[in-house]
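Hi F.,

I've been meaning to write this up properly since the lab meeting, where we talked about keeping a consistent format for the predictions we share between groups. The idea is simple: the sequence comes first, exactly as it goes in, then the structure tokens exactly as they come out, then a line or two of notes. No screenshots and no reformatting. I'm using this chain as the first example so we have something concrete to point to.
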Amino acid sequence: MQVSGIQVGNPVLDAITGTNTSVGQAIPYGAAYSVWVPTFRGGGAKYANLQNSIFVASETVSDSPVPGQFYVGMKISKVFPTNTSVVIGEEFP
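Output, unedited:
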């Protein structure tokens, strides 16, 4: 799997990823906005559905005790189609 994407920075994220010092900070899941596009390659036909699927995710970024390093965690979920009575865009009269 290869992942590419963009991320909107914020002051805490910049402090964690943009320095070579430990700043002792963390961004909780959902506090940073990013768009990631996973690409699945190889394997047999049984993995083809991954390439044609939609995923949503939330990430966290935290400082490491090692200067210049940080941790990134991601919660990834596959979106499945379903019929509902929800109409997006008309929920606020």
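Notes:
The beta strands are 2-7, 26-27, 34-39, 54-63, 70-79.
The first helix runs from residue 11 to 17.

If this format works for you, I'll send the rest the same way.

G.
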